[in-house]
Amino acid sequence: MQVDLLxxxxxxxxxLSLRTPTVLVFDSGLGGLTVLREVMRQRPDADIVYAADDAxxxxxxxxxxxxxxxxxxxxxxxxxxxxxxxxxxxxxxASTLVLPALRxxxxxPFVGTVPAVKPAAEHTRSHLISVLATPxxxxxxxxxxxxxxxAGACEVTLVGATRLAGLAEAALTGEPVADxxxxxxxxxxxxxxxGRRTDVVTLACTHYPLLLPRLQRLAPWPVEWIDPAPxxxxxxxxxxxxxxxxxGPASTRAVFTGGARLSGPAYIALAGFGLARIETLPLPSALxx
Length: 289
Ligand code: DGL
What we know:
The chain is of the alpha/beta class and about 290 residues long.
């Protein structure tokens, strides 16, 4: 298996066109907003579609064949509707599994998001690092191969948090989330052994940086938290090629396959990420195979 820090590095012809590129940023829910924010910062010239397959959220609980079928099916509809020039899979749970199938199905560049194990291994001094992810990402062969390739000199604790992505969505959409609930989800990341302590935690689910200030405050001791979003946005910008001058502001919109969480606070949160135009593309929570 080929292992890249950014799974998008596999196939990559630059997007060579004189017109404004459209970038589709895809996640199971609101986590991809942490990647979108960086893409928009680095490439304000691109038109943006943020697509959340929230009808099937959370992806972390889906088995592998079901997740592959789901993402291919949803992507088919999104590509048909929005004709993107490049797709960012802003979801570790999907990227660590579905990228080969997506690249085989669509003649488009895909940039993936996979656990930032290499930078964690480079930054640690204690050689105790943790990967905070979903249960799906923790189970992937891809994740285990990354660790074997890049973190052989480290002791790596893999933490598959079952509730943290949901808690991040709840907090972003204005629901109360107790500190104790977050603290319980991150507790297994903190390992003390033989006078050493975990000093780097890589955020391997795009939802988790939404909670970063609370993660920092609730950590039993200070660690470096790695958010891969800037690196993913750099890769996206590289594939888009030079920025094009454009006559007016970029078009930005969000599309949801469910929309159940779309209430007042969610609209306010989305507006904070530059998304004021919201639509739904209703899909059942489980598509027929
Ligand atoms: N944001 C997704 C990720 O990066 C996962 C959340 C989910 O379980 O759907 O893995």
